[in-house]
Amino acid sequence: MVTMTGSEVAAFADSVRGVLGKLWPGARAAETGAVGEVWDAAVAHGWFELGPQRALAAALAAVRECGRVACPLPIVDGYVAGAILGDDATPPGRAGRVLVALDGGTDTVRYAEAGTAATHLLALPAPGGTARLRPILAARPTPGLAAPAWCELTLGPQTSTVEVDASGVDDALVLMRLGLATRALAAAERAHQLAVEHAKLRRQFGRPVGAFGAVAGRIARCQIELSAGNLLIADAVRRCESGAGDWRLAAEIATHHARAAAPRVQLGAHHTLAATGYFEEHDAPWLFRRVHADVTRLAEFPRAAGTVADVLVESTAGLPTVSTVDEMRGRLRELLSGYRGGERTGEALDDDPELVRLLAEHGYLELGPAGQLVLQEEVGYRRLPANAALAATTMLGNAIDRHGTAEQRAAFLPLIRQGRLRFCLGYSEPEAGSDLASLRTRARRDPDSPGWIIDGQKVWTTGAHLANYVWLATRTDPEASPPHAGITVFLVPMDTPGITLTRHRALSGETSCTVTYDGVRVPDTARVGAVNGGWAVITDALSGERVVMAGIAAALHRQLDDLVAAARPDPVAVLGPRGGAARERLAGLAVRVQATRALVVAAGEAIERGAGGRLEAPMAAVLAGELAEDFGEAVLEMLGPEAALSGVFEYGLRLSIMYVVGGGTNDVQCGLIARGLGLPRPA
């Protein structure tokens, strides 16, 4: 096996792009392009030698480049054929002009891609047995959605055979499906990129179309689908090349995601491009054909194991882990196994001091972002009561470390590491929820001391009745332009005179408060960061908050496992037979749980690199919130009234609203994503 480094794969992709640029320069080449010429060049450049080397990352890099220009070069067919036939194949098998299909027991194969350029077909037995390499005697194009057209092939007698066991056939089918899914997603991504550029430049009603909220929201959601899909594909490749036992499930998760996401992204791109992208002078129509042709052909390679849902409910398999810090995960699991407090379900409860002490003593409250995500996932999955301590670490630790004074770091970081800093967020106001830059709570210089006087009101302050500090955003320059330039952050003791609370009970059962600040005097030492420099402080804290909000993925993962456990004793009774709507819905939920987990990890890694996670974190938050709502509704439909009785499922549904509106509503998060892609702000 050849495992290329990331830079080597990138260089290989650049080489593929260069070859395609000469022979298949864009998606419009699909109308008249000669696949055979590209195939010859690919063979000459060694693209069809990747199968025997098991260099899957490189093969899929080439597939992505082909997808971007709507070229149907069957690279994965060649990869699979090379892996199966190896050095024992006749020259046509080694040279690469081979297609792969399941053996239908006839001399005819339909829906063949690039059939007019192929010379042979490898017929795979299901579930295992003799694979036959057969020459293609005739290829009749069958015009339709695909461009170039699919073909109906007439096959001759076998020229060679090889025995393939059931596992080998399953590997081949998984790879064929993953290749089609990867190419479809790449084609959709190219259409999306064209749509993003169009949205920046195309003007309607006096402004760029990307400044309209509906357009920006659509583009943001397409970006979420693409980012999650690429992460899932990359994870499947890593697992395959490392020989992980769960690589097939990871690949099926990636394939399922791309099967659903690629058409949605492609249609979203067309909606943004509007009439510009509807006519065949543009690349979009040819990318549209590629996406839908590839997604449709997935049905030609069914697995005996079935869908993602079938695998989960008919075996003991669970979702693969998504973190790269497995050594730490193992130590943490061992530590948590010794905690005797047990899990807690239902309405929000306070931290267990014994658990917090256990985590603090072993250094788990002073981890970097990647480690914090593992901690949140393991604690959240087990439903253990340490949310407040973890939130302080994730939201405030990094911000205080970066923006606090030496005295503040000395005072507060030890409290955070010990799990003893109980705080609440003083952000939202009656007239400033997600639009934090519009806040009105005023901090003015105290004429009688070197401190400040704070007046105003904050709302929806969760946990304020339990907190000993408030992380408070105030306006210190009412005339600042833009408005966020006049904000300053303070860390204020909640027992300061002038602070009063009014409690409110939320749908989830937790308590939030309206907090009034009336002539609250604080010293300047309570200020975190520069005067009027609070936006940078808030941004660092918000990145952590959005990762915390996306940490619902851990709870949803547990709920998914609970749902699967409920179905496993009799899957047909609970979910119906294979191929039914309930199983398809369960598969979709499982895939979205995994996609959310992957985005959460990507956000943590971006924060760890110093990039702030300012694109990945809101993407994770949007996906997590919408998944929470959909999951809660789906469980009620699948399990019926039993799921509505007091317990984790009905509580999860009640809590789900918070994960869509908390920390900035999903609509606002989509605006952040859109601006991260370079779209203009709304007018």
UniProtKB/TrEMBL annotation:
<dbReference type="InterPro" id="IPR013786">
    <property type="entry name" value="AcylCoA_DH/ox_N"/>
</dbReference>
<keyword id="KW-0274">FAD</keyword>
<protein>
    <submittedName>
        <fullName>Acyl-CoA dehydrogenase</fullName>
    </submittedName>
</protein>
<feature type="domain" description="Acyl-CoA dehydrogenase/oxidase C-terminal">
    <location>
        <begin position="532"/>
        <end position="677"/>
    </location>
</feature>
<dbReference type="InterPro" id="IPR046373">
    <property type="entry name" value="Acyl-CoA_Oxase/DH_mid-dom_sf"/>
</dbReference>
<dbReference type="InterPro" id="IPR009100">
    <property type="entry name" value="AcylCoA_DH/oxidase_NM_dom_sf"/>
</dbReference>
<dbReference type="InterPro" id="IPR036250">
    <property type="entry name" value="AcylCo_DH-like_C"/>
</dbReference>
<dbReference type="Pfam" id="PF02771">
    <property type="entry name" value="Acyl-CoA_dh_N"/>
</dbReference>
<keyword id="KW-0560">Oxidoreductase</keyword>
<dbReference type="InterPro" id="IPR052161">
    <property type="entry name" value="Mycobact_Acyl-CoA_DH"/>
</dbReference>
<dbReference type="InterPro" id="IPR037069">
    <property type="entry name" value="AcylCoA_DH/ox_N_sf"/>
</dbReference>
<keyword id="KW-0285">Flavoprotein</keyword>
<comment type="similarity">
    <text>Belongs to the acyl-CoA dehydrogenase family.</text>
</comment>
<dbReference type="InterPro" id="IPR009075">
    <property type="entry name" value="AcylCo_DH/oxidase_C"/>
</dbReference>
<feature type="domain" description="Acyl-CoA oxidase/dehydrogenase middle">
    <location>
        <begin position="424"/>
        <end position="514"/>
    </location>
</feature>
<dbReference type="Pfam" id="PF02770">
    <property type="entry name" value="Acyl-CoA_dh_M"/>
</dbReference>
<dbReference type="InterPro" id="IPR006091">
    <property type="entry name" value="Acyl-CoA_Oxase/DH_mid-dom"/>
</dbReference>
<dbReference type="Pfam" id="PF00441">
    <property type="entry name" value="Acyl-CoA_dh_1"/>
</dbReference>
<feature type="domain" description="Acyl-CoA dehydrogenase/oxidase C-terminal">
    <location>
        <begin position="172"/>
        <end position="293"/>
    </location>
</feature>
<feature type="domain" description="Acyl-CoA dehydrogenase/oxidase N-terminal">
    <location>
        <begin position="360"/>
        <end position="419"/>
    </location>
</feature>
